[in-house]
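G., the chain you wanted modeled:
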Amino acid sequence: MMEQLKTVNVAIVGGGPGCKVIMDMIFAERLMELQMKLIGVACTNPKSVGYLYAQEKGIYTTRDYHDLYKFKDLNIIIELTGRDDIAHDISRTKPGDIRLIDHVAARLFWDIFQVEEALRKSEDKYETLVESSLTGIYIDQDGKIAFANKKFAEICGYSKNELVGMESWRLVHPEDRALTDEMRAKRLKGEEVIPRYEARALTKEGETIWIARRNTQIEYRGKPAILGNIVEITDRKRAGQALETAYNQSIIYAQELRREIEERKRASEERKKLEAQLLQAQKMESIGTLAGGIAHDFN
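Predicted structure as tokens:
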């Protein structure tokens, strides 16, 4: 079971625009890793945007930052005035158990957060693009599925959670595993291989399906991996196989028909030959009969 993070109580000194930004981040729980709770804001200008925003949110406000020290459960003071003298005074006068983040450290913290936020938005945008893809997309790393989008899971018949961590060979038909292993090994070595090939796969139910693969080598989380795109082509393959079977059957039928025609032709020629021979025999018999009659008359 995951250990629950301890809430960190925070107070801000300086009520400028940066104060409001930090407050919005805390209220929106965009700093969840730190589990921050804002308990006070101090600013010499009661009309500053951060000071007024804190009052609107029901947060304790004061014009003297020394008043913040009275909070026994205060953990961190974030100094946003931009003044070194105030930062030094807080460092000197605060209770020892309260940590100080001065405006320099706060600026670094803000820059890091901005970079992380930009990366998060970029990743969210990329994830949305990947998840809406009509092709199955996966990442194979160390012989296991490290990532799979919804379409890939749909083609294979698994859930995305079931696929992540699964040995990728389990998704390949036994007779095609040598082929896919060879293609993966060559890509990881940087060797040139055909960009697209077809192979059989196995679904969760054990059904054999045909897929077209297009793979490329990438670096994923600091390690080499294979980024793959797949499209199921089972129906096309079956249609092609059916067409090939029909073609082969038509060839066989044509060959049989040709043999039958040739046999009939030979039989016809034989019959004509016999008819000719019979006609010739009849002619000879008629001539013999006629000759015999003539000879009888002369006698």
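The helical segments are 17-27, 49-56, 84-93, 103-131, 150-156, 160-163, 177-188, 234-298.

Shout if anything looks off.
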